[in-house]
Specification:
The structure holds 2 protein chains of 2 kinds.
Chain A (H helix, E strand, L loop, with lengths): L4 E3 L4 H10 L3 E4 L5 H7 L6 E4 L8 E3 L5 E4 L4 H6 L1 H6 L1 H8 L4 H6 L2 H5 L51 H7 L3 E6 L2 E6 H4 L18 E7 L8 E7 L7 E12 L2 E10 L6 E2 L1 H7 L6 H12 L11 H18 L1
Parallel strand pairs in A: 1-3, 2-3
Antiparallel strand pairs in A: 4-5, 5-8, 6-7, 6-8, 9-10, 10-11, 11-12
Helix pairs in contact in A: 5-8, 10-11, 11-12
Chain B lengths: L14 H5 L15 E7 L5 E7 L1 H5 L3 E6 L21 E2 L5 E7 L2 H10 L1 E6 L18 E2 L3 E2 L2 E3 L2 H7 L2 E9 L11 E7 L2 E6 L4 H12 L6 E4 L15 H13 L3 E4 L15 E9 L5 E13 L10 H6 L4 E11 L12 H19 L3 H7 L17 H12 L11 E3 L2 E13 L6 E6 L5 E4 L9 H13 L6 E4 L16 H22 L9 E6 L1 H5 L7 E13 L5 E11 L6 H20 L5 E2 L4 E2 L18 E5 L23 H13 L10 H4 L7
Parallel strand pairs in B: 1-14, 12-13, 16-17, 21-22, 25-28
Antiparallel strand pairs in B: 1-5, 2-4, 2-6, 3-5, 7-8, 9-17, 10-15, 11-12, 11-14, 15-16, 18-19, 19-24, 20-21, 20-23, 24-25, 26-27
Helix pairs in contact in B: 8-15, 11-12, 14-15
The chains are: A alpha+beta, B alpha+beta.
């Protein structure tokens, strides 16, 4: 593995300045993904800027009723936070459905959002992958693609985003606070991620060197009735083959508001706006939920091995919304 | 055996060292001046190396040497071409080790490995097993030395004439052993002698292989394997890590540590072949089998024949007048398959015990009763009575413990909210074998005893079991006995494999203990003034044992729940009852049986090597993507055993429990899934992609 230098920045400005000046540097959070990729030769930074010592590890209740979560708050701590558990159960459940206890103790909020796809071709330098080596081709397109995308993929990349947390955050209209060389910026999480298109190596809209410093959850009283359901190939410690984050607000049985996002189906956490539009203003029923999922998944283009993801995602949409409606 | 240590529960002798991290494994021994080796796998499937450019690697900081076929020390060709490494430019499968980089740190070796440039001439390859593969052939025998095909009566006529028939094809993917400790070695040459610490199931065998390959006398090689972090068959022979480390250590004239990566364990060290099995069963209206046929197709490599004995299980399990079994192989451009978790019996039982369940449904008889009705006390294959066969007792005891009675056989009849509930059963058997071994026993003047045998404890509790056996053989409390194992300088003993370790080693230990007691009795005077030692070998006694059908048996019971919408499968409970002769240590025996059952569950629901035929290797080559069962997949696993005395086995009366726990377990799970859902999945693993949307079928 490549020898690298290690830097603990004095503050956020120092971190961003160092990364801006060093083209092959990378931020180090919990290291649960980056260190693996360095050993595999998939990522080869020559400098690690360890941001875990920065004062970004607090959870703060905001005057408007929202919540700001520092980028280095560990996944386990966030999942256990009483306000998260009370006001955003979808978020706590998504966190606890991910990885293992040991990994959650290490993984940070910001790092979780920027983890890389677990597509097996991306993780093996002996195989073609446009995301890892632009122009080398996508071996997954006609390879073993059971775990990969059914929506919004391109000929250049069929990878999925692996994060459970990001799916919940997408449903909650979370804002990502970013520090860049020339100032700070707020990015809605749905605008943070890109479709793969012709350039799957560009995964986010972040500028080079940008550092996620916090995420901001807007106030959403309806989110007290929210949940996350994840289906995976074993009962624990596996990435999703299908997942749904949902917030449902009913008024006398009529859908007043709904937020729905899917995991494991696309290059980014998939906010199901079309399904939401189908549901909103209508009397809720499981049949309506099924129709909404059908609308959302109408453009699905399954690959050779992952056709099951379409009925699976539909099934868990109906399940989750029906359970929320009757809770 | 008056003091009776055998049969009592003892914790592992080395338990404290293991849980406190002080037990040393193969690459954890402190060695002065140690260097680090990193194995470089071939990047092509089939071809020939035309050029190796080591300049950039050698220029990388810390790199000491790059070994490849052009400069590596020469090895004598042996019977295992898999370990005749770095000797020729030919590449036979993707992942074949073609170079080793040696450096002063692990990281530097890994970086150096990335920088080795290898050019190849490549040819077309074939890596996918198919039932209609043009290369199918009939091997001369199957592992370890069984006839390829067998036939009794007239299967075709018997099958055609029967009122009830089942004809089903079952498919299993490649499985990868994945012991927790990878294949790993520290090797050191000094004054022409080779010392290795190796992660192996048999240090005696590794010593013999190294002596042969390096053309040195066996006495010049010492292999130490004091603690081994699992093997599951894959460490049953000398493997790449020990040969590469020894080659590298000779080349750089310094100690070398070399551990394979998790990714490198998917192929080059062996795996279970994918298998296509067709089973045909015919029965009369009462469910009595009249015809049985089991045809198995599996793969081997182009460099050595490995013929998984898949259908051998069927030859002795149930009786019928008309029987046939066949094995066919295809030579593919793949690594050679190898022993894994009950080779033969495990996949064969999955197919036969699944087909028996299909027959039970077809004939309308309870699947426990169907097996009882078709029990055989005379081995249908050898024609001789089994030395002991308690399959029926296991089935009855298990059925009672499990609460099988009054089971509604109707599929999809039980539901608990969104969960469909079902139960399944399968039979299980595994041969009880023994191999010659030798041991020494020493009486010390202080009244203590030392017993030495090159047994291997691969995590099973073998060290503790031999200590108990030795105490009883010597007629003293175990506290007075010291046991030493895991070192090829100790008396040669059989490999820890084939569920025959305890049978083989205890035989030698008991004979050594008896011989020592006789010698002490014959000594003049009351107390010997110095040490008294005897050495015994069981070569003659084991070799002279009559060939009889000796088997352990079991019955596996499973209750599953299947999510009617998503198709997720979870186990509510799994219960096994086994008849495996005498149980030496209930604590470690239970662990082995539960471990085997867990592996069967893992096979049923999770494990699958995904091959990409373009690259010719398994792409999900890590434990994040090759899934192995975790605790929440099953809420309760229980293992029980029956008291069984069989005087035709070995002096300890043991049958071996290393593998029987896995046999039949996957079939019991698959049968329970069918009972829960009405869907028969004949291709493992049973996952959501095969079961999603069941509620739509209601």
């Amino acid at each position: 593995m490549r020898a690298f230098r290690y830097h603990r920045p004095a503050d956020v400005a120092d971190a961003v300045a160092v990364l801006g000046a060093e083209p092959q540097a990378a931020y180090l959070g919990g290291g649960t993904n980056l260190v693996d990729l360095m050993k595999l030769g998939v990522q080869r930074p020559d400098l690690l800027v360890d941001v875990t010592g920065l004062p970004l590890d607090s959870v703060e209740e905001l005057p408007d009723g929202g919540l700001r979560v520092g980028a280095t708050v560990r996944n386990s701590d966030l999942a256990a936070h009483p306000v998260v558990r009370r006001d955003y159960p979808v978020l706590a459940r998504a966190l606890l459905a991910a990885a293992s206890g040991q990994l959650r103790n290490m993984a940070t909020t910001g790092g979780n959002l920027l983890q890389r796809t677990r597509c097996v071709y991306f993780q093996d330098t002996g195989k073609a992958c446009n995301k890892r080596a632009p122009g080398s081709g996508c071996a997954a397109l006609h390879g073993q693609n059971r775990d990969l995308a059914v929506l919004d993929w391109s000929e250049q990349c069929v990878a999925t985003h692996p994060s459970d947390l990001a799916v919940a955050l997408a449903a909650l209209d979370t804002v990502v606070e970013v520090h860049e060389t020339d100032g700070t910026r707020d990015i809605p999480i749905t605008a943070l991620y890109r479709s793969p298109g012709a350039h799957p190596e560009r995964e986010t809209t972040l500028a080079r060197g940008a550092l996620i410093t916090a995420i901001r959850l807007p106030p959403l009283p309806a989110a007290r009735r929210s949940t996350y359901l994840k289906v995976r190939d074993r009962a624990s410690f596996a990435f999703a083959v299908g997942s749904v984050a949902a917030v449902l607000d009913l008024d006398g049985g009529v859908v007043r508001d709904v937020r729905l996002a899917y995991g494991a189906v696309a290059h980014r956490p998939w906010r199901a706006y079309r399904a939401e539009a189908e549901l909103r203003g209508r009397m809720f029923s499981p049949e309506l939920a099924g129709r909404a999922a059908d609308v959302e998944l109408a453009e699905a283009r399954p690959l050779r091995h992952n056709g099951f993801k379409v009925p699976l995602t539909r099934a868990i949409t109906v399940r989750v919304l029906s359970e929320l409606a009757s809770s | 055996m008056s003091t009776g240590a055998v049969g009592r529960a003892y914790p592992r002798l080395e338990g404290r060292e293991k849980v406190t991290g002080t037990a040393r494994y193969a690459v954890e021994y402190p060695v002065d001046g140690v260097t680090y080796g990193w194995a470089v796998p071939s990047a092509v499937v089939r071809g020939r190396i035309t050029r190796v450019d080591t300049a950039e690697a050698l220029a990388s900081p810390g790199v000491l040497a790059v070994l490849h076929h052009g400069n590596a020390p020469r090895l004598a060709p042996g019977p295992q071409p898999e370990v005749w490494l770095l000797q020729e430019p030919a590449v036979h499968y993707r992942g074949q080790f073609v170079a080793v980089v040696v450096a002063t740190s692990l990281e530097a070796a890994r970086e150096g490995a990335r920088l080795v440039r290898i050019d190849y001439d490549t040819g077309p390859h074939s890596t996918v097993l198919a039932a209609d593969h043009p290369g199918l052939y009939r091997p001369d025998k199957v592992n370890p030395n069984y006839p390829t095909d067998t036939a009794e009566g007239d299967f075709d006529a018997g099958y055609a004439a029967a009122p009830v028939r089942v004809d089903a094809t079952y498919r299993t993917p490649a499985y990868h052993n994945n012991p927790m400790e990878p294949h790993a070695t520290t090797a050191h040459w000094r004054d022409g002698r080779l010392l290795v610490h190796d992660s192996t199931q048999g240090a005696s065998l590794v010593r013999a292989t190294l002596a042969e390959l390096f053309e040195v006398p066996p006495e010049s090689v010492r292999v130490i394997a004091e603690h081994v972090g699992g093997g599951f068959g894959s460490k049953g022979y000398a493997k790449a890590s020990v040969v590469l480390a020894a080659l590298a250590a000779r080349h750089v004239d310094r100690p070398v540590r070399l551990a394979l990566t998790r990714q490198q364990l998917f192929g080059p060290v062996g795996y279970r072949t994918p298998i296509i099995q067709r089973v045909r069963l015919a029965a009369d209206a009462d469910g009595r089998l009249t015809a049985i046929c089991h045809d198995a197709i599996s793969q081997t490599s182009t460099i050595r024949e490995f013929a998984e004995q898949t259908a051998v299980y069927t030859r002795s399990m149930y009786a019928a007048p008309h029987r046939r079994t066949t094995h066919r192989l295809v030579r593919l451009d793949v690594p050679t398959p190898f022993w894994m978790r009950a080779p033969g019996e495990c996949p064969g039982a999955y197919a036969l015990e699944s087909a028996m369940d299909e027959l039970a449904t077809a004939v309308g008889i309870d699947p426990v009763e169907l097996r009882i009705r078709n029990d055989a006390q005379v081995d249908p294959d050898q024609g001789r009575p089994f030395t002991s066969r308690n399959l029926v007792a296991c089935l009855r005891d298990g059925a009672q413990r499990f609460g099988w009675a009054d089971r509604d056989p109707t599929p999809r009849a039980r539901r608990d909210g969104r969960w469909l509930i079902g139960t399944g059963v399968a039979g299980s058997s595994y041969p009880a074998r023994a191999r010659p071994s030798s041991a020494t026993a020493t009486a010390r003047p202080d009244g203590s005893f030392l017993v030495r045998i090159n047994a291997t404890d691969i995590g099973t509790g073998a060290r503790t079991a031999m200590w108990q056996v030795a105490a009883d053989a010597l007629g003293v409390p175990p506290e007075r006995v010291e046991i030493r194992i895991g070192d090829s300088d100790l008396p040669t003993a059989a490999v820890a494999g084939g569920s025959m370790g305890t049978a083989s080693w205890s035989w030698a230990v008991i004979r050594a203990g008896q011989a020592l007691r006789e010698k002490l009795r014959d000594l003049p005077g009351d107390e010997p003034s110095g040490e008294v030692t005897v050495e015994v070998s069981t070569d003659d006694e084991v070799g002279g044992q009559p060939t009889l059908p000796r088997y352990a048996y079991g019955a596996q019971f499973v209750e599953v729940r299947v999510d009617a919408d998503t198709g997720e499968v979870r186990l509510n409970r799994m219960l096994g009852v086994f008849a495996a002769g005498r149980i030496v240590n209930p604590t470690t025996a239970r662990s082995q049986l539960v471990g085997g059952m867990t592996m069967g569950l893992s096979m049923a629901l999770h494990e699958e090597g995904l091959l990409d035929e373009r690259y010719g290797d398994w792409v999900n080559h890590d434990l994040a993507t090759y899934h192995i069962t975790v605790c929440p997949d099953v809420e309760s696993i229980e293992a029980y055993w029956l008291d069984e005395q069989d005087d035709e086995l070995n002096p300890a009366g043991v049958k071996g429990i290393g593998e029987i726990g896995i046999v039949g377990a996957a079939a019991a799970v698959a049968n329970a899934v069918h009972h829960a859902t009405g869907v028969r999945i004949r291709e493992l693993p049973i996952r959501v992609d095969k079961l999603v949307g069941l509620s739509a079928l209601a």
